[in-house]
Amino acid sequence: MSKIKIAGLMTLVLVVASCKQGANQSKESKFKKGYELAHSALDRESTISILTQWLANDSTISNWAYDTLAYYHYFFKVNPGAVRNPTTPMFYADKGIEINKNNLFLKDIKAKLLLEKGKDTLAFSMFEEMWKQTNDYTYYWDMTYIQIARGNIANAEEMIKGVLGSPDKIEGKKVKMEAITAQITENIAAKAAFTYLDALVKNIKRDVLGSFELLKKCIEIEPNFYAAKRDIMELQRMNSGGRKQ
Q1: Which CATH number is 75's domain given?
Q2: Which pTM value belongs to this model?
Q3: Which residues pair with 187 in a beta bridge?
């Protein structure tokens, strides 16, 4: 084969490769622009749809795309009053954890999904592991909440007392709390967050007045504390209804 023919073939290969690369970059650019537009517009459905297609065509974004898809399906894909299927967010969380076994963001989501599915023992174990790893009181709050949900009130009270009895340790510490149906995420002072759990325990023990007073303390510490304000309104409504009867 002559040098001219070889050179011609090499040129053709380079042109084809260049065209393919250009097409891929163009497709990636379209996905990125569409994703950024939907994300900026708070269009959750379109964000999920575009990102799913982008990930299917470009595995290089998997280091962050699984995080986003897991979170969007976990936090935003909620219909009030309907029982949701946690399979989809769990799928994306597991995929992301396969890439990075120390991904605390996804492990936190997975633990909460396990709790939704009634697998409280596995959820508790995951929160406990993250608590020991980070000393983040968010995970200790989740562990305490699980004890309350299990009916292990004595254990929960001991955990709450241990936290609130050490004000120096929790000074400046925050607890991330979510109200999914209201689409609210808050970073609450640890003192207010654990006082809230104490109020829940009081309410379970039918000490409604004690619960009400503790909820008021929560608001004094964190004036915009959604869960505490919601529960105060609920107690007031119940008390008002009781008086009318």
Answers
A1: 1.25.40
A2: 0.84
A3: 176
